[in-house]
C-alpha cells in the first residue's frame, strides 16, 4: 500500500495516506465505543468475518464511521446520500487499498489491481472491453450452456443416488469452467474431480491470505504469518505455473476462436497499436480466472439459497422459465434476458449479499464528502455495499426481507441512482457484469426448470469471507421436475444494449 495516488496523473506524497492525514475532521466521524490503546477497535470482532462485523457496527454508528485496527484507521461509508457523492467520478476514483492491494503480488497491474495511473490499465481495458460486447457474449452462450450441462449431469447423478448437493462447491466448479472455457479455451475438468482443482485451492489460499494480512499489524505480519506467507508463495507459484502452461499451449496450438486469451495475445490497441506484454498477459489471465468465477459462484449460491427458502418465489420464477423457454432443450441467447423475474431474484440476492462486498474510493483533489466531511487529495473510504443495500431510507423498514419485486421496472425507476452497486462504480466498475448476469440467469433458469430445490430445515445461513462472500455449508435436496407443459409465450423485452457507446462495458452505465 506504499504507492497511493489519485487518478489525475499527479503523484501524491509517498506513503500510506492514513485517515488521520486524509480527513482533517476525522474526530467528527464516529467509531465503536470500546477503543483500546494500540490495538484499536478489536473487542467483540472476529478476524474471520471483518465484513460482517463492519455491517453490525454500521447499524449502530450510522452512514459514515471508522474502525481502527493496530494503528490503521479505516473510514467506511454506506449511507445512500454519501455513496452517491463518492460515486462522483470528477472528484473521486477507485482506490487500490487493503485487500485489493494485498493481491498485487499475484495480480500486479492486471485490470482489477492496477493503480489508476498505471498505463497498463487503460491499455488492457481498451483491448479487452470488446470481449464483453453483446456480440462476444452471444459467442460465449453455447459454451455456457455446455458447461451448465455438465452441472446438471452431475446433479442428476446426485439426485439418482439420493444425495444432497454441495451448492457453493458445485457453483464454483461451474463458474470456473465457464470462464476457463469462454475466456481461455481451457478445461479444468472440475466436475470429474472429487476434490477442488488445485488451481481453486491455490486461489482460495491467496484470497484468504490477502484478507488475513489486514487483520494483523503490518510490522508483525512476517512473524505472525510466517507459515501462511510460505504457503502463499507456493500458491502464487502454482497459479503462475497453471497460467504459463495455458498460454504456452495456446501459442503452440495457434489461434483460438477469438476468446479473451486471443485478444490478450493478438490484439493491438486500436489507437496506439500497443500490445500487452507477456508478463501483463499472465496477470490478466489470473485476474480473469479469479475475478471471473468466485463472485458469480457466490451470487448463484445465495440465489439458490433464497429460492429454496421461498417456494412461492421459486414457483413464480419457474413459471416464467416455462413460459419463456417452453420445452426447448437449449434456450437461445436472446431468451435469457427475457427471464425478467429470474433476473430480479438474482439482483435481490446481490442486494442482500453483494459477493464483492466493498470497494474503495479516493479523493482526486481536496473536497468535502456530502458537504460535511473534508477530505484531502488521496484520502479514501470503503463503500460498505451490503449496508448501502440495506439503507432503510432507500429500501424501507423491511430491507432485510428477500423480495425480488424491489427490482421490478417501476420500483427501479423510482429509486435514486447509485443505491444498488454490486458491481462497483465508474470507470473501474466490473468489466464482467454482463457476462456474470447472463451466465447466472441462464443457470438459474436451467436449474429451476429441471429441479425442485428443497432446503434443509435445520440450515441457518452462515456466510464465509475471503474478500468475497459465500454461503457456508449450503446443501440442497433436489426433486426432479417433469418437462414443462406450457408452450413458450414470447415476451418482448428489449435486449440490453451492451454494444452501445465507445466502451462496450461502461457505455451502458452502471
Ligand atoms: C456476480 C458477479 C460479479 C460481481 C459481484 C463483481 C463485482 C465487481 C466489483 C464490485 C468490481 C469493482 C471493484 C473495485 O472497485 O475495486 C469488479 C471489478 C472487476 N471485475 Fe467483477 N464482478 C463479478 C463478475 C465478474 C466476471 C464474470 C468477470 C470476468 C469475466 C469480472 C471481472 C472483473 C474485472 C477484470 C474487474 C476490474 C475492472 C477494472 O478495474 O477495470 N467480474 N467486479
UniProtKB/TrEMBL annotation:
Cofactor entry: FMN; FAD; heme
PROSITE patterns in the cross-refs: CYTOCHROME_P450 (PS00086)
Pfam annotation, one family: p450
Positions of heme binding: 430
Key words of the record: FAD, Flavoprotein, FMN, Heme, Iron, Metal-binding, Monooxygenase, NADP, Oxidoreductase, Transport
GO molecular function, one term: heme binding
UniProt keyword Metal-binding present: yes
Keyword Iron appears in the UniProt entry: yes
Gene3D superfamilies to which the protein is assigned, alphabetical: Cytochrome P450
Family classification: In the N-terminal section; belongs to the cytochrome P450 family.
The protein, known as: Cytochrome P450
Amino acid at each position: 500500500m506504499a504507492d497511493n495516488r489519485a487518478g489525475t496523473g499527479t503523484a501524491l506524497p509517498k506513503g500510506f495516506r492514513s485517515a488521520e492525514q486524509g480527513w482533517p475532521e476525522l474526530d467528527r466521524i464516529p467509531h465503536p465505543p470500546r477503543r483500546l490503546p494500540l490495538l484499536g477497535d478489536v473487542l467483540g470482532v472476529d478476524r474471520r468475518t471483518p465484513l460482517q462485523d463492519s455491517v453490525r457496527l454500521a447499524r449502530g454508528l450510522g452512514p459514515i464511521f471508522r474502525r481502527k485496527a493496530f494503528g490503521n484507521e479505516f473510514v467506511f461509508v454506506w449511507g445512500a446520500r454519501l455513496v452517491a457523492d463518492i460515486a462522483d467520478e470528477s472528484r473521486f476514483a477507485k482506490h487500490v487499498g487493503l485487500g485489493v492491494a494485498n493481491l498485487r503480488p499475484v495480480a500486479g497491474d492486471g485490470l482489477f489491481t492496477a493503480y489508476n495511473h498505471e498505463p497498463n490499465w487503460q491499455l488492457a481495458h481498451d483491448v479487452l472491453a470488446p470481449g464483453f460486447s453483446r456480440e462476444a457474449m452471444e459467442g460465449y452462450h453455447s459454451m455456457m450452456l455446455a458447461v451448465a450441462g455438465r452441472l446438471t449431469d452431475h446433479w442428476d447423478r446426485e439426485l439418482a443416488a439420493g444425495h444432497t448437493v454441495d451448492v457453493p462447491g458445485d457453483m464454483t466448479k461451474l463458474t470456473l469452467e465457464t470462464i476457463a472455457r469462454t475466456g481461455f479455451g481451457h478445461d479444468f475438468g472440475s466436475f470429474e474431480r472429487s476434490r477442488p482443482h488445485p488451481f481453486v485451492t491455490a486461489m482460495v489460499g491467496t484470497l484468504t491470505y490477502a484478507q488475513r494480512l489486514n487483520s494483523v499489524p503490518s510490522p508483525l505480519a512476517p512473524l505472525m504469518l510466517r507459515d501462511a506467507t510460505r504457503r502463499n508463495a507456493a500458491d502464487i507459484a502454482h497459479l503462475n505455473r497453471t497460467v504459463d502452461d495455458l498460454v504456452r499451449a495456446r501459442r503452440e496450438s495457434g489461434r483460438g476462436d477469438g476468446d479473451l486469451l486471443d485478444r490478450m495475445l493478438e490484439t493491438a490497441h486500436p489507437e496506439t497499436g500497443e500490445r500487452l506484454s507477456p508478463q501483463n498477459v499472465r496477470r490478466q489471465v489470473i485476474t480473469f480466472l479469479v475475478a471471473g468465477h468466485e463472485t458469480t459462484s457466490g451470487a448463484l449460491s445465495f440465489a439458490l439459497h433464497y429460492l429454496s427458502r421461498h417456494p412461492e418465489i421459486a414457483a413464480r420464477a419457474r413459471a416464467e422459465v416455462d413460459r419463456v423457454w417452453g420445452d426447448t432443450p437449449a434456450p437461445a441467447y436472446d431468451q435469457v434476458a427475457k427471464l425478467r423475474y429470474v433476473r430480479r431474484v438474482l439482483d435481490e440476492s446481490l442486494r442482500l449479499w453483494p459477493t464483492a462486498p466493498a470497494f474503495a474510493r479516493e479523493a482526486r483533489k481536496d473536497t468535502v464528502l456530502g458537504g460535511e466531511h473534508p477530505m484531502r487529495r488521496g484520502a479514501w473510504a470503503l463503500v460498505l455495499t451490503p449496508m448501502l443495500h440495506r439503507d432503510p431510507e432507500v429500501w424501507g423498514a423491511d430491507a432485510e426481507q428477500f423480495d425480488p419485486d424491489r427490482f421490478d421496472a417501476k420500483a427501479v425507476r423510482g429509486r435514486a441512482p447509485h443505491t444498488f452497486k454490486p458491481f462497483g462504480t465508474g470507470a473501474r466498475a466490473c468489466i464482467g457484469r454482463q457476462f456474470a448476469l447472463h451466465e447466472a440467469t441462464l443457470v438459474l433458469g436451467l436449474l429451476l426448470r429441471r429441479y425442485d430445490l428443497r432446503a434443509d430445515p435445520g440450515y441457518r445461513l452462515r456466510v464465509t469471507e475471503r474478500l468475497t462472500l459465500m454461503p457456508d455449508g449450503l446443501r440442497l435436496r433436489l426433486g426432479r421436475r417433469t418437462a414443462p407443459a406450457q408452450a413458450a409465450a414470447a415476451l418482448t423485452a428489449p435486449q440490453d444494449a451492451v454494444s452501445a457507446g465507445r466502451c462496450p462495458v461502461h457505455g451502458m452505465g452502471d
